[in-house]
Amino acid sequence: MTISNLEEQICCPKFEPATLDNKTHQWENKLFIKETMRTFLHMPWPPSIGRLMEKMWKLAKDNNAYPEQKNFLMLAYDPTPWGCEYYMAVMKEIPGAENIKLSGTFLSRVFEGPYSAVPKWIKEMNKNVEAEGKKVKKHYFYYTTCPKCAKKYGKNYVVAFAEI
Description:
Layout: H1 3-9, E1 23-38, H2 46-62, E2 74-80, E3 83-89, E4 98-112, H3 118-131, E5 138-143, H4 147-153, E6 157-163
Antiparallel strand pairs: 1-3, 1-4, 2-3, 4-6, 5-6
């Protein structure tokens, strides 16, 4: 396989951890579209996640509401073992979509490793936030690449966002 063939097979842009590691974000009505998906013990069925991402991206693209690639953000909030919420940042409200606005202070930290490490990362984020005298309201995660691209890049970066 040549380098150009490998590049063609990469669908996710290379993530630069410094852009989101140890950052504070002040969001005021940051606009997202929301979709929900069933999970089994917090695990989505792999084909379902791909279809959900494609659906959300198509909605944003068809309505000329998708952000520049450098500003792409897809957050996952996993409140129960049986379902997950996905939030994709968009540039304007989309008719027919569930438009959500998030406001507040969010801390982000980049982790590297398998998705199964999320419980460990939640504990670490809680510890860091509590050390600053604050409390986490919700945890969101941004999975920066699909599993295939993570394998090709050799890194599986995940960004934890803690709403405080």
